[in-house]
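Invent a record, attention on tokens:
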Amino acid sequence: MVLGRWNVGVCESFLDNRTNAGAMCRSRWSGWGGGLVKAGLAVALMAGAAGTAVAESLDADDAFLPSPVRSVSTVPTNGDVNPYGVAFVPDSFNTGAGPLKHGDILVSNFNNAKNLQGTGTTIVRISSSGPATTFFAGKAPLGLSTALGTLRAGFVVVGNSPTADGTSATATAGSLLVINNRGKLIQTFKNAWIQGPWDMALVDGGDWAKAFITNDLTGTVSRLDFKVSAGGLTLVSAKTIASGYVHRGDPVTLFVSPTGLVYNSRLDVLYVASTGDNAVFAVRHAAERTDDGGKGNLVYEDDVHLHGALAMAQAPNGHLLVANNDGINPDAKQPSEIVEFTLEGQFVKQLSVDPAQGGAFGLAVRTTQDTAVFAAVDDNTATLLIWTLNEDLDTERGSGR
């Protein structure tokens, strides 16, 4: 994660309960209820006494308030529901002549129109305005999971964890699908290291890529190393780098297994959210290790705020964000929560994406020089919630220095 202009020392919490659905980043210019608000008020009063000196130093586009949360249906024309994976199309992505634009959001659907788990076949594209459109429509049997990512060469990679009837009893090992920038399937990878790809952290090196995958059938984490060219991906090697996580079929959530992954390239650490263990672990030397590191080191265990740790993402301030499935250690007073915590395992904040349990799942964050965009699905309503957070105000300008 490249922090860019985001100041980790001041951006204490990425999540804030002041928006309708609860998310806002306390960046260098915000600071709800803290010293920065008091300082900003003092500056405003000084400006009022001295005319409009500070106001004139700021552009009209330097908004203080965040954009309202945007809610977009993720249901495509074929009726697929249960949105799982979320991925942004980065500025480095080769869009070619396809429909994708930089900044678009992709969402994979896990259920079909009959709401059978592991039968969804579509990925929808959500642009900066308007309804979702279908980017990819595959052929059954498919069950497109939370494992969703993009490569700058112009490829979308998605996990396929299918069932025959919506139950874990008929689940198969599945595959990884490679889709080009026009929405066409060009490759399918199946092997012993892909055993129900439940989620994924995709590391993009330009002419190479590493796909870290959680497997719902085996409770393991695999690393697949690829060469990347204009024609697609070539598998170079594959290893099991972590194992021993709780994994089982479940009549409600389909599987309880390791799920969310975040890779920190600076530390060479892979963070793993294990739903059944209700905890987050750190696997060291993840990019190069050739042995199985077991569960790794325990990073975050919190029975007050964790209720089935699920999909994960990293915030611009370096904190980790983890969704909860509410199937483990449930608390009706904390439904559909996304929890923010530090890399040292300290709880920071949480927000609810739905008043009922079971709504939180896939989430992603995109940062640019000026903004952060936070996107999270609500499975209960088959929608994607999107917050755009302006970070263009500069502390030094705001203080008049």
